[in-house]
Design goal:
Radius of gyration: 27 Å
Order of helices and strands: HEEEEHEHEHHHHEHEHHHHHHHHHHEEH
Strand content: 5-15%
CATH topology of the largest domain: Rossmann fold
Helix content: 40-55%
Number of strands: 10
CATH superfamily of the largest domain: Alpha/Beta hydrolase fold, catalytic domain
Strand order of the largest sheet: 1-2-4-3-5-6-7-8
Length: 509
Amino acid sequence: MKNIIIKTHAIHLLLVAVTVLLQTIAVKAESIQQTPLRETVLDRKVHIEKDLVNVPDIARLCEEMDIQKRHVNVGECELYCELEGNGTPLVLINGGPGATHHCFHPSFSQAKGHFKIVYYDQRGCGLSQFKKGKGYSIDQAVEDIDHLREALNINKWIVLGHSYGGTLAQSYAAKYPEHVLGLVLVGSAYDGLPIKESGTRQYDYMSPEEKERIRQIYKTPGLSEEQIVFNIHLNGDWKRQNFYKPTTDELARLARYEWVHDDKFRGEISQSLAKLDIEGVFKDCPIPILLMEGKWDLTWAKDKPAKLQACFPSSKLVIFEYSGHSPFQDEPDKFFGSLKQFADNLPTVSDPNVSQWKTQLEQLDREKQKSPKSLLKHSGWGRQSNQTIAQQYSRQWLTQINDSSLLLKTGFALYDSQRYEEALEVFQKMSVFARDDLFHLAVSRIWQGHMLDLLGRRAQAIAVYKRVVQMNVRGSIKHDQYRLSYVPSEYAAERLKTPFTRLENQSQD
């Protein structure tokens, strides 16, 4: 009996050992399977092309696809549109501003068995007409999307926005929630949301040699934007937003077809984005929301996904461990599996719930119109706007404004009005909100030094300038209204020698 017990115990131990061994083998196999075979941004390999390379003549992927192509009239403009697949309608909004639908090819063809995919180029971009109408803006782009929906006879669709397209998707969902089945934000920008920037990681994996070669390419006269985009990516610029190194063909298509827009497009859209305020809009949103973020999306700091989700309390967040800015390219199986699961489990949102949310948004908008934030967002940087801002300014604003850019604008308005003590206080407040963003922290301190110089407090100004020099902050900033351009730490070193003297605002508005 004793021998039987011993043998049974030995067999049990053997089975446990075999189980552990099999689990170890499985884990190692999974690890090997997940280990990227292609070069990634994490490899930090340096590749420099000494000479400029011609962009290969390569066809659009659309030309090789069995896909419906058409131009859709949205009123005063025709948008280029493609339709692929069958199933739940899904409209794709690309980023930029100024990119095209081509960035979604060929990845999204993987979803054509589950979705009726709508690709399109925004007005002023790609193959759509370059007709600006009253001016390129977020509002105009939102109206174009809904006119596109009507023209395609779609009642409701899932709206997916990538990068800047995420901002546009949010704006569309807030304006036309009755036509949105679900909102999907992929590596989404956060313009208009109360997210405090923590900087960018875009240049963390680029070598000094790559950065210098890219600077040389930008300075080379006579290059088209297509040639610039292709060559800077060959020399390491791909590392800013990609996890895997793109092939030469992929870079050629990027340069030729994914960055085409009206010369006026980016500037006017940027002005529109500066006025956008969607803080609190999605607090009680009844529409299902899916956030999809690449762990190695270096466009943002590491804390960006959590900060974004905080603005969408009811959303689901999916992190892609081996992805950059475009997880649909880097981890397609996981990406489209998550997208399909989201679509298959969409709840029915009642019309009364949507109507109630729209009523709340209208009330929120009325309240915002009374705030200093609204005045600042809808004001320019010139003399006329600054005069209006300065006339309405009160110290209460310091507790109501939590945005570095708006504080900078307020400080400039008070500076224009020669209210230097108040301007100094505003720039000091800006330092508090910019403490995690070294560049804007340096800018806020430089303007503190300016105000101290103008107030005759030179010793204090020198102390502030020294702190900026010690920060060793690179990159340049322009204040066009003052005809002033500088690299913060270098400029601060100059101000140690020569006090700041007043510059007049050269812009009417």
